[in-house]
Design brief:
Layout: E1 2-3, E2 9-10, E3 17-19, E4 22-24, H1 31-41, H2 44-64, H3 67-78, H4 84-90, H5 92-113, H6 117-140, E5 145-147, E6 155-157, H7 159-191
Helix pairs in contact: 2-5, 2-7, 3-5, 4-5, 5-6, 6-7
Amino acid sequence: MNEDPIGRAIETQEPAITCSTCVVSHRDSNPLTRIAAWVTDCNLPFLITSIGMIVMLLWAGAFKLTRRGAESIAPLVEHSPLIWWHFRLFGPYIGTDIIGLTEWLAAILFIAGYVRPKAGIFGGLVTTLMFTITSSMLVTTPGTTISIPGIPLMRFMDLLGLLLYKDVIALGASLYLISHFGKAALQFETKR
């Protein structure tokens, strides 16, 4: 048995599927379970989720530092029972700058989490709070759902609703990242 770069034990006899950082040798299992093991052993869920979150936070944060970004989220903030006060206190442009800088801070904390897992935990806590607030806007913002003629008793999300719904998924990703960085922090502490 050898260890991968993260310190997990791996078997290196007759590899069935390999990638640059992991080896899976489950020749007796079916192809689907070998693929699932390879995805797990290569840590793909964490890598894709964390890198995707970092890119999204940096990009969205940069957009919020623009005039158009500030004006585009003003209706969302104004109808939110959780942060309606934010723009009244800071104004829409400084208020949106604070939101954008908070997104950048969370992205930086996730990046730092690769070497200092507790920073990643803190980044996950920041985004959990952010995405809890923005997910609630799905319910509180007018115009997030529409009715379709001929389909009674049912409403559908329009583009604004779908935009906000992605924050429900990002909330789940934030909780996953807290969990992943938390496990890494525990491993780091036990090695000391």
